[in-house]
Amino acid sequence: MAEQLLARARYLRLTIAVAESLTGGQLAAQLTAVPGASAVFRGSVTAYATDLKAAVLGVDAVLLDQMGAVHAEVARQMAAGVRRVCRADIGIATTGVAGPRPQDGQPVGTVFVAVADQGTVESEQCRFGLGDGLPAQERARIQRLSVAAGLQLTLRHLGMRTRS
Q1: In whole angstroms, what is the distance from residue 54 CA to residue 62 CA?
Q2: Phi/psi at 43 (nearest 5 deg)?
Q3: Contacts 24+ apart (CB under 8 A), 110-113
């Protein structure tokens, strides 16, 4: 999917940046593993700590205080923020709970992905968990599925665009 996304962005003459939390850089790693990614990929911010989401990406601190980092609007603001910070056409974001315990009142496996461009921001909620106290392989599975969800959402988003 990373290859497909980069090819689509290249065709549309768009650049991409990524903001990650629970995936810890894995989405950026998948994109940059593709030969020629530098023609499209601008950079990434791994804002694992909640305060970095506000300080670096411009996520509303009040929103973070009231709702926590695992929220659709946080994902949307992360995507818009990384787009701005990296001066990219498209921003992609992941935030959620990989485990082993719930966070911000959300169960393990709750994930929000988002994509932002100049005119729109959209997000999607995913539920990948099987319960609390997950073993390490389940945490890794949630992260892998979150990366895939971010790629899929962005591919769908770009599929609606036409070349300018």
Answers
A1: 9
A2: 160, -175
A3: 110/70, 111/22, 111/142, 111/145, 111/146, 111/149, 112/70, 112/71, 112/72, 112/74, 112/75, 113/75, 113/146, 113/149, 113/150, 113/153
Are 81 and 117 contacting, i.e. CB atoms less than 8 angstroms apart?
A: no
- CB distance 124 to 113 below 8 Å: yes
Closest among 112, 130, 111 to 122, alpha carbons compared: 112
Beta strands in the chain, from DSSP E residues, in sequence order: 16-20, 41-46, 90-96, 110-116, 121-127
Dihedral angle, C-alpha 71, 104, 56, 117, nearest 10 °: -10
Sheet containing strand 90-96, edge to edge, reads 41-46, 16-20, 90-96, 110-116, 121-127
Report the predicted TM-score, pTM, of the whole model to 2 decimal places. Answer: 0.94
With beta carbons less than 8 A apart as the criterion, state whether 54 and 60 touch: yes
For residue 161, the model assigns a pLDDT of 64
In the chain, which residues have pLDDT < 70?
130-137, 160-164
Cβ–Cβ contacts within 10 Å for residue 148, how many? Answer: 17
Query: Residue 142 burial (CB < 10 Å; 0-12/13-18/19+)?
Result: buried
